[in-house]
Design a protein that fits this description.
This protein is an alpha+beta fold. Helices cover about 20% and strands about 30% of the residues. β12 (about 220-225) and β13 (about 225-230) form a beta hairpin. α2 (about 120-140) packs across α3 (about 155-170). The longest helix has 19 residues, at about 120-140. The protein is globular.
Length: about 290
């Protein structure tokens, strides 16, 4: 089985008097693009003062499996990301606006692929809930602080870590479930304990692409004809993953390939064997 989400390129500013949005519609952010004119009389807009909604598509195939266990999500403008989670104060000083640039919030778009195993329940739950929980975490301001020149990944690791852990707790019945501002108590897991899912989630805004990965689904960027890997598979035969699993009390067994407890072919997932799971993050500029 396989599920794929593909999206067009976002808006970037590469100099000159204007910037074009490839594959979507462009508009200024909520606070307005009150940029001061450049010396040559034209207005140069920073990527932090732009919005682009990319085009996207989804494709999935069931293959020889009895049922489709994978899911994908595309959620345009799912949240507004504080620019302080993306840029240092030194970068913001050069934007050239007549308001506090640190108060900017950039519209962000989420794309996700969830590869289920043992059933479709957890993959479908991730499809419906991960963007909701991530939006709630961002609104709560978790991880929000001014980034430095080195620790730009720190706030996103906190945000995605809290998001994935909350969804995993909801899946396993360890936490209450939130929906439309209401909290519903949940004492039972949403699926049997042999059901789980990978999760690779990409957040795209005008300036950056942020990728969080849990499992062996992949995010790939195509630039021209060159594919660029944006995620690293979590596999039990990786030395660091095997060490982490064994330190947590698990076992890696070579049974038709290396597997956690001889069963799971990836070393991290939401749901099944989640005690050994946590997301890893790649943070990169969208230009």
């Amino acid at each position: 089985m396989a599920a794929t989400v593909f999206a067009g390129e976002g808006a970037t500013a590469r100099g000159g008097c204007s910037a074009e949005c490839a594959g979507g519609s462009e508009r200024p952010p909520d606070l307005g693009s009150r940029a001061r004119p450049a010396g040559d009389g034209c207005t140069k807009r920073s990527v932090y003062l732009m919005e682009c909604v990319p085009l996207w598509g989804c494709a999935a195939t069931r293959g020889n499996a009895a049922e489709m266990e994978d899911a994908c999500a595309a959620v345009p403008r799912f949240a507004d990301v504080p620019v302080r989670m993306l840029a240092s104060s030194r970068e913001l000083d050069g934007i050239g606006v007549d308001f506090d640039a640190a108060e900017l919030r950039l519209p962000a778009h989420l794309f996700g692929v969830y590869d289920g195993h043992g059933g479709s329940e957890v993959a479908n739950y991730c499809r419906d809930k991960i963007h909701v929980v991530l939006r709630d975490v961002l609104r709560a301001g978790k991880g929000l602080r001014e980034v430095g020149e080195v620790d730009v990944k720190d706030p996103w690791e906190k945000v995605f870590g809290d998001c994935f852990q909350k969804v995993d707790d909801e899946v396993s019945g360890k936490a209450s479930m939130s929906s439309n501002g209401f909290t519903e108590s949940r004492a039972e897991p949403i699926a049997a304990d042999n059901v789980g899912s990978t999760a690779v989630v990409v957040v795209v805004c005008s300036s950056h692409v942020i990728i969080a990965n849990c499992g062996d689904s992949r995010a790939v960027l195509c630039r021209g004809k060159e594919p660029i890997a944006l995620s690293i598979d979590h596999k039990p035969d990786r030395k660091d993953e095997r060490t982490r699993i064994e330190a947590a009390g698990g076992k890696v067994i070579d049974w038709n390939g290396y597997r956690v407890s001889g069963i799971l072919a990836m070393s991290r997932s939401i749901g099944k064997f989640s005690a050994f799971a946590c997301p890893s993050l790649l943070y990169g500029r969208n230009y």
